[in-house]
Design a protein that fits this description.
Blueprint lengths: L2 E4 L3 H13 L4 E4 L3 H9 L3 E2 L3 H7 L2 E4 L4 H11 L8 E4 L5 H13 L3 E4 L2 E2 L2 H6 L2 E6 L2 H14 E8 L3 H29 L4 H8 L7 H12 L8 H18 L4 H15 L10 H6 L5
Parallel strand pairs: 1-2, 1-4, 2-3, 4-5, 5-6, 8-9
Antiparallel strand pairs: 7-8
Length: 288
């Protein structure tokens, strides 16, 4: 089975590298940035010049791009070459409704479609230890599971098309609220002479222990916000969550507050920094 990978950004490049190193057939690679394509070609991939070429040459197409508009753009380009011999896995984090709409158009061509967004960030992508939430038929899921296993070690099918994305949005919404709790309480501790590392150690002794703080305490202590997962991407996700909540008739005041923090971080120009840099936005807030 020949695989095509489209979208070689921070996450996509690491995910694709794992496929190249573990798969026993050709892996075609493409990104709009030719330098990124060339880097994966050096890893052993076969460089392509377009999404269309990648899809034409591959049996299984994987996309990892930023937004719904990008996935729709890829679809418009590759739809002419999709047929019953092709399977498309979109691993982007986009609006669930948009993904369902795309899946319907792909299936009209006879091809299979799954949404399979990922959780965790760049280090896990490099190690092939991502969490992956899958939406699609049971048959398609079982068929592509070996390929997903190149990239992740915790893989779960959530239901039909779009359900993987619903779970990803719920996951990131919860992370955003845990993160904001860490931001606020760690700053309160700091204002009273307790540094972030001591704070994190003390939190680990009780019910407040969480993966976010355990994994980001050193980053926050050093104020080194080198991007593993950007504020801009999480900003997109929290607003997808609020839109989904509105469509579902669910009130989420905690997520509304998290979204305000992300809005402020974007306004302050922190969008390209790691999402843990939201602590700076919270720190700069003034009491009412």
């Amino acid at each position: 089975m020949k695989i095509g990978f489209i979208g070689l950004g921070i996450m996509g490049s690491a995910m694709c590298a794992n496929i190249i190193h573990k798969h026993d057939d050709e892996v075609f690679v493409f990104d709009m940035d030719k330098e990124k394509t060339d880097l994966l070609a050096k890893e052993g991939g076969t460089a392509c010049s377009s999404c269309l070429e990648t899809a034409r040459r591959a049996d299984l197409i994987i996309t990892m791009v930023p937004k719904s508009s990008h996935v729709k753009s890829v679809m418009a380009e590759i739809l002419p070459v999709l047929d019953s011999s092709k399977t498309w896995i979109d691993m982007s984090t986009i609006e669930p409704a948009a993904s369902v709409e795309i899946s319907e158009k792909v299936k009209e061509k006879g091809a299979s479609f799954l949404d399979a967004p990922v959780v965790k960030s760049r280090p896990a992508a490099e190690a092939g230890k991502l969490g992956i939430y899958v939406g699609g038929s049971e048959e398609d899921y079982e068929r592509v599971l070996p390929v997903l296993s190149y990239m992740g070690e915790n893989i779960i099918r959530m239901g039909g098309n779009g359900k993987g994305l619903v779970m990803k949005i719920c996951h990131n919404a919860l992370v955003s609220q845990i993160q904001n709790g860490v931001n606020e309480t760690s700053l309160l501790a700091a204002a009273n002479g307790i540094d972030i590392l001591t704070f994190a150690k003390a939190i680990s002794y009780g019910g407040g222990q969480n993966f976010y703080l355990d994994s980001k305490k050193e980053v926050i202590a050093k104020e080194d916000f080198t991007t593993a997962f950007s504020i801009a991407n999480m900003h997109k996700d929290v607003h997808i969550c609020l839109n989904l909540a509105q469509e579902s008739g669910v009130y989420m005041p905690g997520e509304e507050n998290a979204a305000r923090v992300y809005d402020e971080a974007m306004e302050k120009g922190f969008g390209s920094e790691d999402f843990s840099a939201t602590v700076k936005a919270v720190k700069e807030r003034k009491p009412c």
